Amino acid sequence: MTAPPIRLGVNIDHVATVRNARGGRHPDPLRAAEIAVAAGADGITAHLREDRRHIRDDDMARLKSHLAVPLNMEMAATPEMVEIALRLMPHAVCLVPERREERTTEGGLDAAGQHEALAPAVRALGAAGIRVSLFVAPETRQLDAAVAVGAPVVELHTGTWCDAVTVGHSVAAKAEFDRIVMAAREAHARGLEVHAGHGLDPLTAEAIAALPEVVELNIGHWLIAEAVFIGLGPAIERMRAAMRRGRAAAGPRAVAS
């Protein structure tokens, strides 16, 4: 298949993490978002968590008010968050699992086991014109669940694969990459728009960008961490270059093993 253009959503959560470690307003997530857009981000992602550990309500309001690119709000499927999203009206919402004791989002949403909780949220958000995605593991049953609850988009969790690549577990990495490849194909065949994210760096992002079904990557931690050394703009430019290489390739698989 001919690969459509691939978008980059930049997650700015950890700019807020640094700000909150000291208090005050510096570094400002909105300023980071503006730099990201200038450097080539197609959209901005921010996770408003129940405990407000990084992004806060005021951050979301300012992002929505000032950005000219799509704002993707990551959130749990709770009544409070649905109400906030319907008031804020971001371009998109990505429903994710959330536990207070986790350091970051760990694993995909169990859409298959949470139909009753997810379906009303997806319905309400979709009816308001907000694009809804589910952040799920690359598993057939999760893709089927996304279709069942009416979500038009899935974001495939790439973190397990990225972790295996990082520590050099080649067998596990290949098996997990194969799962991502198959899930991307199955999701596309079901009429779902396919995104991917979690743990991606330029090497792994290049490999995922080579999957023609994937039309958007959402990346945060590597970009913000690398920005400490080279600046956010150059970090995003490096990531975009990797994504372009992946998209131009016939489908390199070397990183999977």
Report the count of strand segments: 8
The residue ranges in which pLDDT falls below 50 over 5 or more consecutive positions are 101-105, 250-257
N to C succession of SSEs:
EHHEHEHEHEHEHHEHEHH
Number of domains: 1
Straight-line distance between termini: 24 Å
- Radius of gyration over C-alpha positions, nearest whole angstrom: 17 Å
Spatial shape: globular
Beta-strand portion reads: 15-25%
Describe the structure.
The protein is of the alpha/beta class. The chain has one domain: Aldolase class I (TIM Barrel), CATH 3.20.20. It is 50% helix and 16% strand. The protein is built from eleven helices and eight strands. The protein has helices at 13-22, 29-39, 57-66, 79-88, 115-127, 140-149, 159-167, 170-189, 202-209, 221-230, 232-248, and strands spanning 7-11, 43-47, 71-75, 92-95, 131-136, 153-157, 193-197, 214-219. Strands 1-2-3-4-5-6-7-8 form an eight-stranded parallel barrel, surrounded by eight helices. Helix 5 links the parallel strand 4 and strand 5. Helix 7 (159-167) packs antiparallel against helix 8 (170-189). The longest helix is centred in the C-terminal third of the chain and has 20 residues, at 170-189. The radius of gyration is 17 Å and the shape is globular. The two termini are 24 Å apart. Residues 101-105 and 250-257 have low confidence and may be disordered.
